[in-house]
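Design a sequence for this backbone.
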């Protein structure tokens, strides 16, 4: 399969729950596009030589016969465009004057255009907040009375060049609300940390999601933001490209409230690559009204994987296999030992000769 797959995990006592998996925009893998065991990964903040610095991060992951292009940006709401090609020589072209214009169509292209085998996008549009004070059902939808959402297009973001780390292949977009009359973000921030990988494995830091060379990881962190209620739950509104008249189906494991409905969301880089498109939106809320929740430590972390192909599947570790072998093997040995004792005792009784 080829598509956009999200493996999501909240970490820590303030996290949303064990796991959530969303399979979005899945389609048959195009001929000639195969997964790669390893890739040569490079990160570049693409400069606008004629204007002020712009947050446009290009991750290029080159394999033997293919290239993955991840274009992350905070021009407008934070967004990512994912393009997979069947050539190790494909490149990203940016027309800054067109990209920053009111009509950005065509400002972002991957060349040669006929090498593109798959493309999609995600846009993180709004930070949601709910008052769950009077909600006793942890599965309630919505999880509480909604407060007015924070539009992420109204945030000011740091210069990601300062956070670019070529060793860990990561960079961080950190944002604060520009017009903040309640000073909710005076000592807090919302961050999007992006990390790419050259091979399969797990990062050193929790939640240590299993990844491949065909994926990159996004960690969303909300910290220090003052909630508007004593038991506020937070969430994200996320938009993805609609494929035809219907929204893509979702596969969900465990329970995080979500909903989606057709909508249109404007992101400069998404429109620059795809033109005007219809979007499907869904909400992810973190935590439950019964706790734990953001109110415990004013900290929330959520991670996901974005890439092509089937999501990586966790295999049983040697430790777990060893525990299972002991747990399952010990009763077997006990039954076998008990059988031998019974056989031996039966033989002793059968050889017994009575004396009159």
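Sequence:
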């Amino acid at each position: 399969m080829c598509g956009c797959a999200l493996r999501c995990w909240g970490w820590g006592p303030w996290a949303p729950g064990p796991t959530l998996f969303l399979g979005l925009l899945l389609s048959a893998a195009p001929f000639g596009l195969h997964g790669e065991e390893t890739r040569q990964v490079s990160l570049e903040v693409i400069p606008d030589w004629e204007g002020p610095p712009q947050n446009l991060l290009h991750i290029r992951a080159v394999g033997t016969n293919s290239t993955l292009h991840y274009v992350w940006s905070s021009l407008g709401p934070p967004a990512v465009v994912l393009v997979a090609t069947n050539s190790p020589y494909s490149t990203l072209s940016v027309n800054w004057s067109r990209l920053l214009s009111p009509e950005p169509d065509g400002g972002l292209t991957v060349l040669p255009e006929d090498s593109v085998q798959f493309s999609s996008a995600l846009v993180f549009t709004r930070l949601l907040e709910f008052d769950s004070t009077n909600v006793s059902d942890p599965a309630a939808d919505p999880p509480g009375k909604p407060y007015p959402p924070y539009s992420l297009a109204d945030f000011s973001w740091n210069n990601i060049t300062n956070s670019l780390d070529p060793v860990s292949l990561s960079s961080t977009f950190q944002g604060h609300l520009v017009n903040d009359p309640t000073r909710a973000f005076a000592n807090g921030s919302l961050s999007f940390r992006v990390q790419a990988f050259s091979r399969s494995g797990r990062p050193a830091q929790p939640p240590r999601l299993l990844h491949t060379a065909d994926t990159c990881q996004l960690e969303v962190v909300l910290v220090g933001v003052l909630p508007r209620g004593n038991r506020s739950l937070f969430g994200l509104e996320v938009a993805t490209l609609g494929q035809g008249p219907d929204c893509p189906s979702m596969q969900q494991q465990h329970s995080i409230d979500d909903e989606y409905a057709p909508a249109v969301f404007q992101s400069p880089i998404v429109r620059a690559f795809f033109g005007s498109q219809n979007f499907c939106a869904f909400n992810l809320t973190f935590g439950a009204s019964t706790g734990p929740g953001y109110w415990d430590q004013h900290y929330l972390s959520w991670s996901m994987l974005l890439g092509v192909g089937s999501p990586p599947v966790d295999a049983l570790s040697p430790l777990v296999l060893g525990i299972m072998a002991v747990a399952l093997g010990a009763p077997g040995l006990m039954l076998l030992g008990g059988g031998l004792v019974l056989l031996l005792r039966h033989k002793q009784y059968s050889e017994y000769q009575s004396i009159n």
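The first helix runs from residue 96 to 99.
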